[in-house]
Amino acid sequence: xxxxxxxTGVTGQDGAYLAEYLIKKGYTVHGIKRRSSLxxxxxxxxxYQDPHESHRNLILHYxxxxxxxxxxxxxxxxxxxxxxxxxxxxxxxxxxDTPEYTANADGIGTLRILEAVRLLDLVKKTRxxxxxxxxxxxxxxxxxxxxxxxxxxRSPYAVAKLYAYWITVNYREAYGMHASxxxxxxxxxxxxxxxxxxxxxxxxxARIVLGLQKEVFMGNLSSQRDWGHAKxxxxxxxxxxxxxxxxxxxxxxxxxxxxxxxxxxAFNEVxxxxxxxxxxxxxxxxxxxxxxxxxxxxxxxxxxxMFKKRIGEVVVGVDPAYFRPTEVDILIGDSTKARTxxxxxxxxDLKALCQDMVANDxxxxxxxxxLKDGGYRILNYFE
Length: 383
Ligand code: NDP
Ligand code: GDR
Prior knowledge:
With 383 residues, the protein is of the alpha/beta class. The protein has helices spanning 13-24, 68-78, 92-97, 99-119, 156-175, 197-209, 230-242, 259-268, 292-298, 301-308, 336-342, 350-367, 374-381; strands at 4-8, 28-33, 58-62, 82-85, 127-133, 178-184, 187-188, 216-218, 224-225, 228-229, 249-251, 257-258, 272-277, 284-290, 314-318. Strands 3-2-1-4-5-6-11 form a 7-stranded parallel beta sheet, sandwiched between helices.
C-alpha cells in the first residue's frame, strides 16, 4: 500500500506541483479545497479523477483553514501519513489589507492542524510539514540568512507565519511530533499567481511584445529576492518529511537579484534590451534595442515590424500604489544544511526559471485573446 498524504492549499502553485509529484511516487493524495463560486482548479485539472472511479489517487475535500471542526474531521477521516500545510493567504501586500484574516488562516490555521493530529491520537503516525517562509527574516539581521538567523517579520503575513513557525517547533518539542518547518525562499513557476512580481513581469512582457499592452507599472524596483523554481522546492518538502528526525531547513538558491534586473532578464528572453533611467517614482524602463532575429523567431515577424517603431518608448513605470508600508529589502538564503543533510540540489537557476515563465506566458497570451482589456485592468488594480 502506498502512503497517504493530505495537502492543504492543493489548488495553489506548490500544492499542484506537490500533488503531481506525490501521485507519481505512488501516494494517494487528499487535497483540501476552499469553496469558491468558480471552479478554481485549473492547476490540478490534469490530475482530477471522476469521484465515481474506483481507485482514485487524488481526492478533494471542501475545507477551510479557519474552520477547526472541518479540519479535524478531514484529518480524522483521512488519517494521513503526511500532512503538507501549504494553505495560506500568501500575498504579503494583501496581508496589510486583511491582517486579521491572515493571522487566522496562516497562524491559527497551523495550530488547528497540529491540535487535530494531537487530539485524534495520530502523533505517532502523521508527519507534518509547515510552509514557513524567508519573509520571517524581514529586516534581515544577517546576510545570507540561515536556520540560526534571528527573525524580524515586516508584514502581517510574516507575523502570522512567525506564530505558525514557533507553534510547529513547540508541538514537536512538547508532544514529540514529527513536525518540521521548511523555510522556503521565493519560488516561482509558470503556475505562480499572477499578482506576484515575477509572474506579473513575465505576463506583462508577453503582452507588451504582442502589442496587447503598452506599459507595466511596478512597485519597489530595488528590492532583492532569492528566486528558485517551485518544481525544485516541492522536492525539498518531500525530503524533509522523509527524514527520521523532524527539523527545520532553509531552502534557497543562494543568489539574489533586484526586481529591476529580473525585468531586464525577462525582456531579454524575447530579444528586447530594456534600460532604466530616473529615480524613485520617476524611474522608467525604455526599449533600448531589439535583437531582431530572436524577437522574430519567438514572437513573430509581424509583431517585430510593429515593435521596432517603439524603440525609445517607455515599457516600465513605477506606481507607488504597489509600495508596501514596510518592505523586505533583501533576501538571500544559505541552504547548506538542506544540501548536506537532505541531499537537495535545485535543477533550475534564475535564467532557466525566467525562460520557462516567459515562454509559457508568451504561449498563453497568444491564446488568451479574451484577456485583451480585462487582464490588464485587473493587473493594475490588484497587485
Ligand atoms: P498560493 O497562494 O499559490 O496557494 C495558496 C493555497 O492556499 C491556495 O490553494 C489557496 O486556495 C489556499 N488557501 C488560502 N486560504 C485558505 C483558507 N483559508 N483555507 C483553505 N485554503 C486556503 O501559494 P504558494 O503555492 O505559492 O505557497 C504555498 C505555501 O507556501 C503558502 O503557505 C505560502 O505562504 C508559503 N510560501 C510560499 C513561498 C513562495 O515563494 N511561493 C515561499 C515561502 C512560503 P485558493 O486557490 O482557493 O486561493
Ligand atoms: P514576496 O513576493 O512579497 O517576496 O512574497 P512578491 O513577488 O509579491 O514581491 C517580491 C518583491 O517585489 C516587489 N515588487 C512587487 N511585488 C508585487 N507583487 N507587485 C509589484 O508590482 C511589485 N513591484 C515590486 C515587492 O515590493 C517585493 O519586494 C512571496 C510570497 O510567495 C510569500 O507567500 C512567500 O512567503 C515569500 O514570497 C517568500
